[in-house]
Amino acid sequence: METPEQTWGSTRTPSSRPASQKSTRSTRSARSQQSITTTEQTPLLAREDWSDNGRPEEEEQTPATTSLLRSLSGSSAKSAKVPLWKKRWPSILALVLLCLVVVFIMFGFLASEGIEEYAMQAADFRPTRLALDGLTEHGANVHVEGDFTMDANRVKKQSVRNIGRFGTWIAREAESGPTEVDVYLPEYGNILIGTAKVPGVKVNIRNGHTTHVSFVATLQPGSPDGIRNVANDWIDGRLGQIRLKGMATVPLKSGLITIGKQIVEQSMLFQGGDIPTLPHYNITKLNLREAKHGHKGLGADASIVVTNDFPVQITLPSVAVDVGIKGCSADKHIMIGTAQTGQLDVKPKSDVKVDVTGNVEKLPDPLTQVCPDSTKSPLDAFLGDYMKGEDATIYINCCNFPDPATPAWARDLLKDITVPVPFAGKDMGNLIKNFSLADVHFSLPDPWAEPGTPEAAPKISAVVKVDIGLPNEMNFPLDVTQVKAVADIYYHKKKLGKLNLDKWQKAKSTRIEGHGNEGPSLLVQSDIKKAPIEILDDDLFSEVVQALLFGGKSVMMDLKAAVSVGVDTPMGKLAVRDIPAQGVVPVKPIRGGGDNDDKPGHGDHDGKEKLSAINLKIGNLSIVDTSPTSISLTAHVNLTNPTNYSATVPYFNINILVNGTHLGTATAKDIEVHPGNNTNILISAIWDPYTYGGSHGKEVGAELLSQYVSSFNTSLTLQAHNGSIPSVPSLGRLLSNFPITLPAPHMSTPKPPSDGDDPDQPEDDGKSHFIRDATMHLISSTAIFTLSSPFSSTTMFITSLNATSYYEGRPSGKILYELPFAVPPGLSETPRLPVEWSLGSVGYEAIRKALGGKLKLSAFAIVGVRIGEWRETIWFQGGQIGANVRL
């Protein structure tokens, strides 16, 4: 801290002084009067080594007053960190006045012409004790102890040093009588801020001698309004500098010689680093609880340790203050509660422990109301800063004194002073200890919504369970009743998307007490409904989906959210908005919760096994329209959802492929899929191999139909595309990276009647068989076949038939038939079809021998098929056809 500038001063002899004394000091009086009348910047002492600009050429010189003020105000390196002015205003005022008192005394008894400059530099006063002995009706009694020494080595000029040593050796001692010192603020209308009554003091002024000084001074504050004005300017940061002016009439004598009364005036300027700040403190304990002893609301207990590096001993009475935070306007504060300390004993050079008890009965409405042109309330902003680890600010409105014995002047002096106090934030870190979703339901968007709008975003509904770690300081009931949040979701430190839950969702919470080193937590459960999910990185989302489908472990997501909660507290109901929260959220794989979940060795195949467990079955196949190249049909689908998630699908279109060739599409509208079995899901499909795949597609389609009706093992690939969800092309494009290949579903067809005793009846292999059985007539050389149509309401036609039957691989007969015939829904019989027997063949002989009985035949045929306008030629290969042989 720089030494406060000593701007001007003088010593004057009152008019009542005897003429002999006036004549002996005429020269100095004249110079003193000139100093007073000229300017306030005139130096206190006449110096021959002052430069033209009024500043001393040897600024390193330290006057006695400077040493004294440094000692009392803590100008050492250690004291600079915690200035003495940081104590309460009564003690601040007392210290300032005492400093001036001692300065004026030193000026008085050292103010002889010969040793004036010597005294200014050689005098050194080091306080050893400063104690408040008690408050009086009009002021305070302060006990001051210290050591006064004259040190000639501090004087720079040798001539001055020699004169000073000689003069003080002769004088030996100096003594002042009782003195009153008035201190003013020139820059604040010259208001009186205090008066000090100091008893007489005697000191040894010889070089190297130390005098222990001990006296009790009575301090009386001046204008309370003036002191408060200075305090408010300092608190608001408007106090760039402050000037103090002291005036006193000091009676002096040295030995038996009475010098008389000396009028002393002195000004000191404090600026820059000389002006103190709030003291350093540390909150060592904070406990938030329910209010006690019949009070309502929330109570708080805190312990604060304040550093005290000074030899100050003060007993402060109990103090109560109002506590507030910043409102919507920076110049308006909202008071939220009260705080009170007990009687405080301050020991010299000892840290001060302050125990504070607070209480908040009810939060005022302006505290929780959203500010104009903002989305936050004052409480939201305060908690947001605190939980991010940033310093929040509380405002202390001083002061009330519960002790009725506290003098009225202390109440008047400190009332209506508001002090901003930094409140160290606490970085909550990973508040979310666990996050899980149950009963998850995905909703795909309206297919015709405008892309990029909230209506075009997929939505999620689920039961969200969040285990939130609570600070140990929170020991009061807290019930979360509703939540909403906007969350950014990260995967591998890249931003994946955003969850926008901007509507209040009902919630309930349960407090779980901590065990061991674990603190308490709050388990919050909420049913969220249709929260939009915005995917910002399609490639990254593709990685996530792949990990969820085929991975064996939970996928870890980083969550950074602004959470708003509605809570019931001892202070009432309130909403706290945009509380920052972050954590790591595990998302379980998209599969059932079997015993092998998350076990090593099950990650690579479990997802594929679950996809194969879809168990897709198609029934009630109906043709709704045809064209020369296409068939439009509907069907009812039964499937198994192996995951724990459900979904609502307003519209979804998927391509049907065989070996990479596009043959058709399938569309689902307004369906609900839930975990487990799902039955009678209506879908529509278009089979058009030529339009989608050209001539190659037509060939692939005919081959697939041939294999399918022949009960071969066939498969279809289902693959999403950009138009799968028209409102979210990116989602369809993403899902196209995960084609699903499934066995071609077996269509449900009527079962033939059987009593189970026919050894020639084909075994039910679970497959669809187009030809169920046949009847051979040997005399008429004809055959009748029983056919099973896969359609429930559509009649198809066989336009041509070129078929050969076989017995154990040997031909037995051939059918060539060019007349069309109908195949109605369900089971039906063909007309009598002419047969050309392979006479003499092993196959024919087997048929002839089975006359009146039954045998198993196989067949291969080229069949022309027509359904409406659509025509196709396929081949058919059948085995295990039960044939009845008749005449």
UniProtKB/TrEMBL annotation:
Protein name in UniProt: Pre-rRNA processing protein
Pfam families: LEA-2_1 (PF26174), LEA-2_4 (PF26150), LEA-2L_5 (PF26153), Tag1_C (PF22786)
Residue ranges with Low complexity bias: 20-39
Segments forming domain Tag1 C-terminal: 474-588
Domain Tag1-like fifth Ig-like: 764-875
Transmembrane segments: 91-111
Keywords: Membrane, Transmembrane, Transmembrane helix
Keyword Transmembrane carried by entry: yes
Organism: Clathrospora elynae
Biased amino acid composition, Basic and acidic residues: 46-56, 594-608
Annotated Polar residues bias: 1-19
Presence of the UniProt keyword Nuclease in the record: no
Residue ranges of domain Tag1-like fourth Ig-like in the record: 617-731
GO CC annotation terms, alphabetical: fungal-type vacuole membrane
Gene3D superfamilies recorded: 2.60.40.1820
Region span, Disordered: 1-72, 586-608, 742-768
